[in-house]
Write a structure and sequence with these properties.
two-stranded antiparallel sheet, 115 residues, alpha+beta, 4-stranded mixed beta sheet, 2,3-Dihydroxybiphenyl 1,2-Dioxygenase, domain 1
Length: 115
């Protein structure tokens, strides 16, 4: 059976990425990879990728800043206001990520797109 790594991919503004990394380090995460468009942090086996641009092999396949500026909205999570991509943008990014980066479509990708 092939191993499929599980991680949380977050698109974040370049002006917020270092603050987010600092806050995650305060929660016990360690920086394990630092690249121009991504900071990868881990705590035990849980991995978080903070991405300023969705990319694969140094090829940007979506404009992260434009997604955040033009295709995001406020949502409520546990009585707190958060910012998230619109359903349409999340669907497009999930499909692009599955095809370009993962080279496979997982059940969670299908559920996101069908939702």
């Amino acid at each position: 059976m092939d191993h499929v790594s599980i991680d949380l991919d977050i698109i974040i503004s370049s002006k917020d990425i270092y603050k987010a990394a600092r806050l995650l380090r305060e929660k016990g995460f360690e920086v394990i990879v630092y690249k121009p468009y991504t900071i990868t942090l881990a705590r035990k086996s849980f991995i978080i990728d903070l991405n300023t641009q969705p990319l694969f092999a140094w090829i940007i396949y979506s404009d992260g800043e434009k997604l955040l500026e033009e295709y995001s909205e406020e949502i409520m999570i546990d009585n707190a206001v958060a910012r998230a991509l619109t359903i349409e943008a999340e669907t497009a990014v999930s499909a692009s990520h599955a095809i370009y980066k993962e080279h496979m479509v997982l059940l969670i990708d299908c559920l996101t797109i069908w939702r």
